[in-house]
Polysaccharide biosynthesis protein (Treponema vincentii ATCC 35580), 488 residues
Amino acid sequence: MSASIKKNAIAKVLLTIVNILIPIFLGPYTARILDVGLYSEYNRALTLFSWFLPFALFGIPTFGLREISSVKDNINKLNETFSRIFYFHIFVSFFVSSVFLVFILLKSKSVIYYLMWGQLLTTFLFVEYVNEGFEKFGFILYKNLFLRLAYIVLILVFVRKSSDIIAFACISIGFGIFNNIFSYIYIRKYITLVKCSFYDIFIQAKGLFPVLILSNTSMLYTNLDCLFLSSQIGNEITYYMIVRAILTAITSVFGSIIVVTIPRLSFFYAKGSRNEFLNLLRKSSNIFYFFILPSCVGLIVLGNQLMNLYGGVKYSAAGIVMSVFSFRFILSAIIAVATDQVLFATGNEKKLIKIYFLGGLLNISGNFVLLFLQRLTAVSVIITTITAETLVIVLQQLNIRKIDKDFVTINKNVFKYIFISTVVFLLVLFLFPFPNSYATILSQFLYILKYIFLCMLFYAVVLFIVKDGVCMYVLAKIKGLISKKVSL
């Protein structure tokens, strides 16, 4: 990959790592402090909010990034483009938040819902796509670092009792609002709002609708599962959402490898540079698989231990949720490569939408069957989603084969990395069994660190022995970095 792509990938990875600090360091604290029932009430409100948020965003982050990137060298066009998008976003935010307000007035009197209404109302201030379009990753990184540190301090100071759910909600929601405000203030240094006609503002809806649909297909999968679980009495919704947050934080680090290649892949395809497209696709996707697949396998094996360490006895039932969800993330990784690097990069959004809707219909049907049979749990809804995503993978690969049979994204490396990591993880587990459930938190933590280190070491050794291309590439890069440090 080129130097610019590597630089952007590193910046995105650093930013993602900063965002991972919250669930890693504060997640166990809040899970152990807050009452599970109150936490479940918060997660029910968050589930409803997550259904309205995509409509308040209206695909603008994706659409805006593309539009701003194309005109950033022309100040007049830049101001006009941003102004049109921003004014449209104000209208959408106010309309969606008004509908949300009516809904919660009829549904609930909980303060948490009204706090989330405030965040929905200020969605129009989300302008991070401008900073990304200008590649202001330094600002984004430092801003997030400052806000995350403030968030940690506030949580530790004000969330001290099991009943402090309102304080937790205020801090969490306030973090999102202030994050948007800081970004808006920053971009106004180099962007000016100008007058736009109503026609120019609202004609954008035509281009935004396809992006809205494509950007929010998760509503038929993860968000739909949350909606079904939120209707149930008990803590299944909290188990599901905590596990999802942990897994998303961990796997999103490697997702940066895929995201930063999309503009270059789109350029190669539009230019007709098939060989360059194919080389970048294969190299980047194999690097992604090299890291993400063993991570998912490890999370499957460590599910019970991780959740016991994370939340204690209160969340011991979430261990199986972690393991099953981690298996689903293997499928999600394969889908991400096919979606972002091939179907989206080659302009096949309409095919993607059809595929996602077919899978979504299967997922909805499965959840209704579970509801009818009274078998609706966090594990069961994940299994229905696994079934639906298997259909998505099959349809994606069939459509990719029609575009170009060499673009198919499931290759022998996928099976090689899964097989080797599974054998390695089970072998290490056999040699070093899990500590008993009465072990101290420190001993559990140290065991997990030792287990991960040994698995990584054996995984790398095996791939080195078989001369795996990605392994040799990564080792060469590490060797180059060490040589530079030594020469200095």
In short: The chain has two domains: 1-212, 216-488. The chain has 21 helices and no strands. The CA atoms of residues 59 and 208 lie 6 Å apart. The first helix runs from residue 3 to 33.
